[in-house]
Amino acid sequence: MLAFLTRRSIGAVVTLLIIAAVTFFLFFAVPADPARLACGKVCPPELLEQARHNLGMDMPVWQQFLAWVGGLVAGRDYEGLGHCPAPCLGYSFVNREPVLETILDRLPLTLSLTFGAALLFLLFGVGTGMIAALKQGKALDKIASVSSLIGASVQIYFVGTLAMYFLVYQWQILGRPQYIPLTDNPIAWAYGLLLPWVVLSIIFTANYTRMTRSTMVEQLSEDYVRTATAKGMPRRTVVMRFALRGTLIPIVTIFGVDLGQLIGGAIITETTFGLQGIGRLAIRAVTDSDLPMLMATVLLAAAAIVVFNVIVDILYAVIDPRVRLS
Fold this sequence. Notes:
Elements: H1 2-28, H2 34-39, H3 45-55, H4 61-74, E1 76-78, E2 82-84, E3 91-92, E4 97-98, H5 99-134, H6 139-153, H7 156-170, H8 186-220, H9 223-230, H10 235-263, H11 267-273, H12 278-287, H13 291-319
Antiparallel strand pairs: 1-2, 3-4
């Protein structure tokens, strides 16, 4: 198991370094004047020159990249701006502060939105899919199939707008979505994000319902499951111990990818409900021409997907021990 984890961890680190190098090249080597993109829309000549110097525009691209990687390890000094402590993802010339500080300020909201919605769509999606598979061809199966098809067809901004209009403004059942730190008031934290959680989970629940149903139906027809049933094992034991275990592998795969993407920024959801998370931060970086901030959000999204893929590989080894040997 240790060797398995070591291989996956080394592979993740190498992947992140490759992603960082490619992203840095795209952001700093391809544009004609990266300093102007990093300085913001309103950038006097003296600030533009300062940005060029701090970004190392007078050095080759590979030296600029090494300086940026060095900032991740040991921090970096920016002339006229101060010291950016490690891990330094860059300095925002628009916000006049290290990029990491801004990201850490927005990250708790995005994490709260991600894991709250993930808990809902995982429970409802897998649960509904299992029921549909066990009641294959019956009324519950047809209702679940139609509901998942409708849920997969609608968009977050459509459902979110309707939910805001009726539940918040028209019927006043819920308050306007807002973020209150979990440590300040857990109840207010959950209440403020309940509507975004529900709306976001509607879209994802449909995918998990369809995936769980199709996989569970396939597992129930496997020889080892039919053998366990023929030996007289209780239906509950057969489903939970054998069929569900085989069903979890594809579910874990898409769950890891979805979590990584959501942590990288649920842009449409945050925009629909006016939440200031990583997704809105990325949009703001584009509109303000804040290149260091934009690059950091891109790397965060990539890192989240890589990390959760490693976690998925670990879960594979837990669910199916044969994976450890592959």
